[in-house]
């Protein structure tokens, strides 16, 4: 009896120390992951003196200052940049979802001669980055008179997002029971109504996953805004921050404020949608 | 595709097919497939005063042999392989360790750790580049002070500004940002391993390490392979981090130049050299071939060999 007891307590002691180690390592890495971001955010609320004298301190009544933010808002059109990013992202993601769902449905449900070719074409786009075609995309946009428009960005981002959207949504379409569609066909429901009233609602959870995966690269992209739409009026937030920081690199309060203004909205959105995103990542949707 | 074979009959023209597939396919082909093919073709041409003429493989020969081009090209290519090697040696092992720790049974706060560690991955590479530029800046002195506090102060240097250390430092920054991806994908695979397999190995007397080595590791190999190919494609296409931190010239003395920044400079020109769309297309074509070879190797060897482990 005593032997068993000491054996058991031994195990629990070992388990406790083991779980402490696990927590210690994970906590340490969490600090490594967050520290640089937090330090930038904290220091953006300080004046120049506070930033340099004690970077690690929280802003006190003495060092608190919003001068960086004032400078950023004064010297650049941050509101417009954010608005441009929102328009481009919302339009591109919305269209990727709609066109992607329609294409996924067509490719999975209907049999036709070029089906395999088109499926393969979309599959290629998952691995081959669209950037490699930039030379010709720029020429095309010049010909179409779309340089320095948000439309050019939306079009490119739709083309960029579609392959993965079609792939993930096709996987989901396959899990929809055939009987559902067959029954509707027997009732002479049109193919359009079958898709829009039966299939599309069923795809909603998958579309949320696709939306998150499509949105992040678009919002964060620098390459295409830099090349296709660098004008002041069409600048997205990522390009706006890049240009601003490049220009005012020695003005620490401004730079820290600009970075904070780019980081905080994303972190808030991430905190709200992280469950959705992580479920998407871990559900095997991207295997 | 419906698998049942339906009897052939005269059907009306499938307008719904055009409506469903047409718009997406049109945009995808126009702005992705066509530009890529056009770029591949353009790389075989040269342009002079608005006229373009076919030159065969001359652009490629120039790229790999001409003294004005080849050193920059080989430099960018070799830097890119180093950049990739760093990711493979650091990002995936760290991601694996974090995933294994996260998946320890009955771990409290696992969701919180996961969410927080993944956070940097969500932010723009540009922003992350700037953040680290500030953190590592000798002017601000945060990292210098930190190193002094833990007794390693003498090792501090302006890493991003030195030819010997800039690329390594940028690789570290990139690894730091993207470690969340292998962590998350491996973690998902670990969660999917059926409990009875683990129980069976415990009953057979395997300790935790043996269980990991002989049961879990083979099962997560496909995920590691997939993460590797994702990393490969992303690394050979990287541009933003270098551009944000070091500019298009990828200084000091091109020591941080990757194929992405080399492509950008070739296409748009820099300093005295004029931009050239045909040479740019040639660089993009080589990048395409490198990525294609990588993806093919993955599909034909790795994927096939690990198939038998899949469950």
UniProtKB/TrEMBL annotation, chain A:
GO terms for biological process: transmembrane transport. The keyword Ligase does not apply. This is Carbohydrate ABC transporter membrane protein 2 (CUT1 family). Keywords: Cell membrane, Membrane, Transmembrane, Transmembrane helix, Transport. The keyword Membrane applies. The chain crosses the membrane at residues 21-42, 81-105, 117-142, 154-173, 194-219, 252-273. GO terms for cellular component: plasma membrane. Residues 82-273 form the ABC transmembrane type-1 domain. It comes from the Bacteria. Its main location: membrane. It holds the Pfam family BPD_transp_1. InterPro entries: MetI-like, MetI-like_sf. It is found in: Cell membrane. Belongs to the binding-protein-dependent transport system permease family. PANTHER family: ABC TRANSPORTER PERMEASE PROTEIN MG189-RELATED, ABC TRANSPORTER PERMEASE PROTEIN MG189-RELATED-RELATED. It is a multi-pass membrane protein. Coiled coil: none annotated.
Automatic annotation (TrEMBL), chain B:
Pfam families: BPD_transp_1 (PF00528). GO terms for cellular component: plasma membrane. It is a multi-pass membrane protein. Its main location: membrane. Residues 77-300 form the ABC transmembrane type-1 domain. SUPFAM superfamilies: MetI-like. It is found in: Cell membrane. InterPro entries: ABC_transporter_permease, MetI-like, MetI-like_sf. The chain crosses the membrane at residues 12-37, 83-103, 115-135, 166-191, 212-234, 279-302. GO terms for biological process: transmembrane transport. Keywords: Cell membrane, Membrane, Transmembrane, Transmembrane helix, Transport. Belongs to the binding-protein-dependent transport system permease family. This is Carbohydrate ABC transporter membrane protein 1 (CUT1 family).
């Amino acid at each position: 009896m005593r032997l068993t007891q000491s054996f058991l307590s031994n195990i629990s002691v070992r388990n406790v120390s083991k779980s402490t180690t696990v927590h210690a390592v994970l906590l340490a890495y969490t600090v490594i992951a967050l520290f640089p971001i937090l330090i930038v955010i904290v220091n953006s609320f300080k004046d120049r003196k506070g930033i340099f004298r004690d970077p690690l301190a929280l802003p006190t009544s003495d060092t608190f200052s919003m001068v960086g933010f004032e400078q950023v808002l004064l010297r650049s059109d941050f509101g417009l940049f954010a608005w441009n990013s929102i328009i481009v992202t919302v339009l591109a993601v919305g269209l990727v979802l709609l066109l992607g769902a329609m294409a996924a449905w067509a490719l999975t449900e209907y049999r036709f001669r070029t089906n395999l070719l088109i499926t393969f074409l979309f599959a290629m786009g998952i691995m081959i980055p669209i950037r490699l075609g930039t030379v010709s995309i720029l020429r095309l946009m010049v010909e179409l008179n779309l340089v320095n428009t948000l439309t050019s960005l939306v079009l490119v981002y739709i083309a960029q997002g579609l392959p993965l959207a079609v792939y993930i949504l096709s996987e989901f379409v396959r899990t929809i029971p055939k009987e559902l569609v067959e029954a509707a066909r027997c009732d002479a429901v049109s193919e359009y109504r079958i898709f829009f009233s039966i299939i599309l609602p069923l795809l909603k959870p998958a579309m949320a996953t696709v939306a998150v995966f499509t949105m992040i690269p678009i919002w964060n992209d620098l390459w295409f805004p830099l090349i296709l739409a660098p004008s002041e009026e069409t600048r997205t937030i990522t390009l706006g921050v890049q240009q601003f920081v490049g220009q005012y690199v020695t003005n620490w309060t401004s730079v820290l404020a600009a970075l904070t203004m780019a980081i905080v909205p994303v972190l808030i959105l991430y905190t709200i949608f992280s469950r959705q995103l992580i479920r998407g990542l871990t559900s095997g949707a991207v295997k | 595709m419906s698998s049942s074979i339906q009897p052939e009959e005269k059907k009306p023209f499938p307008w719904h097919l055009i409506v469903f597939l047409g718009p997406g396919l049109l945009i995808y082909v126009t702005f992705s497939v066509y530009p890529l093919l056009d770029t591949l073709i353009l790389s075989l041409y040269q342009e002079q005063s608005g006229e373009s003429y076919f030159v065969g493989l001359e652009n490629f020969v120039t790229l790999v042999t001409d003294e004005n081009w080849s050193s920059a090209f080989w430099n960018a290519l070799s830097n890119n392989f180093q950049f990739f090697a760093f990711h493979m040696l650091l990002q995936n092992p760290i991601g694996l360790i974090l995933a294994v720790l996260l998946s320890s049974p009955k771990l409290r706060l696992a969701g919180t750790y996961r969410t927080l560690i993944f956070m940097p991955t969500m932010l723009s590479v540009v922003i992350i580049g700037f953040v680290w530029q500030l953190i590592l800046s000798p002017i601000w002195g945060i990292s210098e002070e930190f190193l002094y506090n833990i007794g390693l102060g003498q090792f501090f240097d302006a890493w991003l500004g030195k030819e010997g250390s800039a690329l390594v430092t940028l690789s570290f920054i990139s690894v730091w940002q993207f470690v969340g991806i292998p962590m998350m994908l491996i973690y998902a695979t670990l969660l999917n391993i059926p409990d009875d397999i683990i129980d069976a190995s415990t009953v057979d007397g395997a300790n935790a390490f043996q269980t990991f080595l002989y049961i879990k590791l083979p099962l997560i190999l496909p995920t590691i392979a997939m993460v590797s190919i994702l990393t490969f494609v992303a690394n050979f296409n990287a541009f933003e981090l270098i551009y944000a931190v070091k500019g298009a010239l990828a200084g000091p003395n091109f020591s941080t130049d990757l194929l992405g920044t080399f492509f950008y400079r070739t296409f748009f020109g820099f300093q005295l050299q004029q931009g050239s769309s045909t040479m740019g297309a040639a660089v993009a074509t080589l990048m395409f071939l490198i990525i294609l070879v990588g993806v093919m190797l993955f599909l034909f060897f790795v994927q096939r060999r690990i198939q038998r482990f899949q469950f």
